[in-house]
Fold these 2 entries.
Entry 1:
Amino acid sequence: MNYNINEQMLGFDRVLSWEGQVPALVKEGEHYFLQLRAPEAKKVTFTMNEEEFPCSREENGIWRMKYTVHAGIQYVQLKIDGVEVVTPLLPITYGYSRPYNYVALEIEAEDFYCIKDVPHGSVRREYFFSKVTGEWESCVVYTPYCYEKEKEREFPVLYLQHGHGENEVGWTASGKVNFILDNLIAEKKAVPMVVVMSNGMVQTLDGNGKRIVDFRLFEKQLLMDIIPYAEEKFRIGRTKKMRAMAGLSMGSLQTSITGFDHPGYFSSLGIFSGFVSDMIQGSPLDMVQREVSKNEHMKILDDADMFNSIFDVYFRAMGDQDPFWEHFDHDDQILKEKGINQIRRVYPGAHDWNVWRMCICDFAQLIFK
């Protein structure tokens, strides 16, 4: 197994099982099994894609289940006697609005996101004070390998967003965007760029003092806080030509809203597993009590000639098994009727990181050229 596909935030090396415990993932013949030694437990399950799978108890107190996902990255939730548990024996990322386990298996003939013997960039965590929230916030920034060497060079910058329930570490912890860009830059398929990844699940207080998420605040925070901070701290472009924005799922909607509302900021937009119409505002996903969106940001689509002239790349992509396909198809029809030019990709897969890795790999090769 390629070692780095299990690399995680808390440790590059995998966690070894301790005395009395067993490895969480084992291969026997052609099959993988998830397992845990919990002799006092009455019931052990793993949840994947919101479906719960029971484990069978063996005489030695080991609970096991056959892992039926054949390849790629998959979120998994261990549950012991009805209590959700994060196990240190599987890699940990951030999903479903909390630390979350995942399993990563190699995909045959697919290594574009793996660590290779090429020059590597840096990933750093930054901190800034937000005028929007009145609190300290954090972002993760990737700089290409040549950033440290070419001291006089100004680099283009991609503002890259995660999806609902994730945060600023998603694109590096799960998406491996740093390795993807390292490889593309080494192969001269992508222009060296800085990538700024911020938390789009912007937290604030409601009228009762309860902490909630307002995803619509991100547009304001990006323009007022994040971009000014990044442009002061890093040698990055301060013009439309030198900026791009992209995001997955909720982040794709934030990209649509921000990019459409402020077309003078970004030269290219990437909509991954994405939404043009606002299907979050006023839905059960929206923690703010408000009406369904009137999609004011979509007025820009009424002038196709202008829209087609102001974005160098307008990229939309989806997995062919994505449960949100109807929204993608709905937006397809709108864009077609309006005469909007786009680069449209459909990948094998669902609403997950296996698709989003392919999205960023293709999008990164198109921008800043």
Note: Residues 128 and 137 are 5 Å apart (CA to CA).
Entry 2:
Amino acid sequence: MKKGFFYIVFCLNVSLLFAQSERFNIIKTQQLFKNDSISFLYNKHTTSAPFFYRNPKDTGKTKLNLSLSPLLALEPSYSLNTEKSFFFNWNIGVQAKLETNKGWSGEVNYVRNFFDYSGFYAQHIEQTNDVYGYGYSDTTSGATTYISGFIAYQPNKTFTFEAGMGNHFIGEGYRSLLLADNAYPYPYFKISTQFWKIKYDNIYSNWWDIRFSNGDAANFLDKYSTTHYLSYNPLKWLNVGFFETIVFSGYDGDYYRGFDLNYINPVIFYRPVEYSQGSADNALMGLTLKAILKQKHVFYAQFLIDEFLLAEVRKGQGWWANKYAVQFGVKSRDLFGIKHLNSLFEMNIVRPFTYSYFERNPGTSALLNYAHYGMPMAHPAGANVMEQIARFSYRKEKWLFELNFNYLTTGLDTGNVNLGQNIFKSYDSRTKDYGNSFLQGERTTTLHSKLKVNYLLVKGAGWYAFALVHNYRLQNSMSAFNQTFFSLGVKTFVRNRYDDY
């Protein structure tokens, strides 16, 4: 190795930086104080997060940049109409980021999360053992550890290779019906290929069924997923995407096979592979569309097929296995000519039993539903749900104002009867093959209304203060519930917390 060939410039910046966003979406809270407009530009592919940008130009000398950032969130809250009025959530951690001009980059986030919840927040934890993506808990107060990170190599403009512990999201909307970031991070390996008008992603992941673990990682049941997503721009204002994924067990009978090598092939369709293997693995397919109007409005749609027979649809007899999900939405920027005034309107429809699967050996092999760590990997409410979303944001210098509404109608399962809402129930436990209908079960309406005001305390540093009012209303034939939260706090670390379903 010639002297000077690897001349290293080590730059250590210890600063209070805002944590690297895992998604790009102008409506998401993560994009605080950023004028991100990538979704509205022509010839851009549908979001498949996280992203990586090309590293600095190679000058022949190796440059290595390292930054360390403290991560902190303090969130005291007061609740009306609950037995426990005051609760306090906070977390503390550190983020390390590395980048070189030789195509390498990396990031590690370590956060210790201390939580104390009441009301519907507590109900979520009791039902799922998931603390909104921060880890496992069987109590409504305590502490969890959150770890995520990646190492990526981008040898040229065509390929990016990435391995890590994290989440992914495919789509342009607030929700994704294909692959969402609801759950705790998971191990993965990702290959991204981009050329001409095409971007192609391969994601190989290890998910966990935690239902029988009592929080002990040694008792997590392994399952795996392999995902293909092909994004194509036929016109500068039009994008079409093709999605397929398969979820499979690490076990074949009593034999532990680990990751099935048949699903490593990065260019093959999984349905033929599944059939050729005589496999009971769970395969899903989908389509995405995006149209851009004058770089001010984005119209988007998703269509997912779990199982579907056109002949059964034509019969109109309510066959249980016509399992699919549909999304339509539009998001706009600079509404009425007002800069940084943005909006999103979205409709999500998920048929009964979608994302669910049959269970072979409860407690010894993972349930191959479309879920990880107690949370669905698409819509967080599971299935048999219809949702309307309206979101508005306005940014002015150091201020960001957000007004959000989520209205859901869900057909809940009643008692031990499986009517297709809970995707953690084996679909073999359904009560009937025919006579099923959308939103069957206990018809339940839920409305989340949020008003949030954010203020950037230190420009370029990421410290921001916020005030939040969150009203939650639930109603069905058995009960009615109305809860209002008031929160004040300071944050430098933001993770998508889906508490609005």
Note: The first strand starts at residue 9 and ends at 14.
